Amino acid sequence: MKVLGKVAVITGGARGFGKAFSEALLKRGAKVCFADIDVSGGQQSQRELAAKFGETSVHFVKCDVAKEEEFRDLFRECLSKFKKINIMVNNAGILDEAGWEKCIDVNMTAMMRGTYLALEKMNPENGGEGGTIINVSSFAGLYPAHFLPAYVATKHGILGFTRSLAMDPLYQSQGIQLATLCPAFASTNMVTDIIQGEAGSRQKILYPDVAIKITENMGICSVADITDGFIELVEKENCNGDVLLIDKKNGKQYQFVNKTTS
Ligand SMILES: NC(=O)C1=CN([C@@H]2O[C@H](COP(=O)(O)OP(=O)(O)OC[C@H]3O[C@@H](n4cnc5c(N)ncnc54)[C@H](O)[C@@H]3O)[C@@H](O)[C@H]2O)C=CC1
Ligand SMILES: CCCCCC(=O)/C=C/[C@H]1C=CC(=O)[C@@H]1CCCCCCC(=O)O
């Protein structure tokens, strides 16, 4: 897709990947509506991005994606401000093994809701123009990790859900593509807080020492490495069904290249 002139909705955009993806799309001439549960972080990012790309290009919406009505309001607000939605990025995610139900609500249920809402708004029968949906899974969407069982379950779910919808000829006929981004460890707060031992962070996973050891073996990607893969997916002419893994040692690798099991 050519990004210039398109409109994107990005969840979890106050910091980390979501903020970097927003900036990368704005740089290429898109308008971005980004959402986050963190109001002060979202407002700060809004100020930074508006100063670089103009007040009329970027809009922050306070939204807890685990709350259905707030997620619906995010789409309403984006349509009211920018009139269309061409790119949807379900990026918001958390680690919370003790509160695993919350992990499922945010990482899995909300990702499904965001996908279904985007499919509805992108449908030409509803006035949409088709579009691209990128769901952010993880290496943990393909491989087990005993320090993160609930998180791994949600990330496997994202992968299976997104690949399944991508096979549906209905959405293909509507000009809608769905792809999955699977980063390994990258240097956002989700990972660096645990390595640095920030208060409360190590309680979010099991066996933090094992996780830290694995990061030492696998290496840690920069946010720019992951953003580069994200933009590659969005700008591809056909990303439907793609699963893009990115890790420090091997860089970008597409999985399941024949896209179906048949
Ligand atoms: N950093 C990493 O190594 C990797 C991260 N991921 C995934 O990438 C995505 C982004 O993660 P990072 O940027 O690393 O994390 P991060 O923790 O830096 O940023 C996540 C953002 O999501 C927001 N958020 C959390 N719960 C929310 C909710 N209920 N509603 C709205 N916003 C909410 C947070 O406030 C935060 O701004 C997540 O889905 C994560 O699972 C995947 C693979 C590797
Ligand atoms: C010391 C850093 C610990 C960071 C927290 C953590 O345990 C999980 C990290 C992940 C952050 C987002 C992800 O999706 C990462 C998980 C990647 C797991 C990959 C495990 C692969 C393997 O064991 O081979």
Automatic annotation (TrEMBL):
It holds the Pfam family adh_short. GO terms for molecular function: 15-hydroxyicosatetraenoate dehydrogenase activity; 15-hydroxyprostaglandin dehydrogenase (NAD+) activity. Keywords: Oxidoreductase. Its EC number is 1.1.1.141, 1.1.1.232. It comes from the Eukaryota. It is an enzyme of class 1 (oxidoreductase). InterPro entries: NAD(P)-bd_dom_sf (IPR036291), Sc_DH/Rdtase_CS (IPR020904), SDR_fam (IPR002347). It catalyses: resolvin D1 + NAD(+) = 8-oxoresolvin D1 + NADH + H(+); prostaglandin E1 + NAD(+) = 15-oxoprostaglandin E1 + NADH + H(+); resolvin D2 + NAD(+) = 16-oxoresolvin D2 + NADH + H(+); (15S)-hydroxy-(5Z,8Z,11Z,13E)-eicosatetraenoate + NAD(+) = 15-oxo-(5Z,8Z,11Z,13E)-eicosatetraenoate + NADH + H(+). Belongs to the short-chain dehydrogenases/reductases (SDR) family. Catalyzes the NAD-dependent dehydrogenation (oxidation) of a broad array of hydroxylated polyunsaturated fatty acids (mainly eicosanoids and docosanoids, including prostaglandins, lipoxins and resolvins), yielding their corresponding keto (oxo) metabolites. Decreases the levels of the pro-proliferative prostaglandins such as prostaglandin E2 (whose activity is increased in cancer because of an increase in the expression of cyclooxygenase 2) and generates oxo-fatty acid products that can profoundly influence cell function by abrogating pro-inflammatory cytokine expression. This is 15-hydroxyprostaglandin dehydrogenase [NAD(+)]. It comes from Sinanodonta woodiana (Chinese pond mussel). The lineage of its organism: Eukaryota, Metazoa, Spiralia, Lophotrochozoa, Mollusca.
